Amino acid sequence: MSNQVFPWARFAGFSLALMGVGYGLMKATTPTEQQLYDEMAPDLRRRVDLARATREAREAEMRRQVDAQVAADKAPAPTPIWAEPPARK
């Protein structure tokens, strides 16, 4: 029975080592965002800067809308109809 368990342990160890080597290789060879930006052509940099500015403007507008909604939600809510006592005729 121990002969069947040992190959699985060896396989798991080999798999973890292989994944570790792959992860290390990826971290060593993948450039950072700043390195990638620095290597771009000037026309691509302008397009990236324009896209960033557009995205930031959309996010700022979304934040303003969310803040307005939160402020509206903090206002006292009217009492619902079912919470009022029944009208007497």
UniProtKB/TrEMBL annotation:
Cell compartment(s), UniProt: Mitochondrion inner membrane
Database matches in InterPro entries: Cbp4
Basic and acidic residues composition bias: which ranges?
55-66
- Location of the region described as Disordered in the Swiss-Prot/TrEMBL record: 55-89
Task: Report the membrane topology from the UniProt record.
Answer: Single-pass membrane protein
Cellular component terms per the entry's GO annotation? mitochondrial inner membrane
| Ranges that cross the membrane | 6-26
Q: Which Pfam families match?
A: CBP4
Keyword set, alphabetical order: Chaperone, Membrane, Mitochondrion, Mitochondrion inner membrane, Transmembrane, Transmembrane helix
This protein's source sits in the domain of life called: Eukaryota
- Family, per the entry? Belongs to the CBP4 family.
Which function does this protein serve?
Essential for the assembly of ubiquinol-cytochrome c reductase. It has a direct effect on the correct occurrence of the Rieske protein, core 4, core 5 and apocytochrome b.
Give the protein name, as stated in the record.
Cytochrome b mRNA-processing protein 4
Tell me the organism: Hypholoma sublateritium (strain FD-334 SS-4)
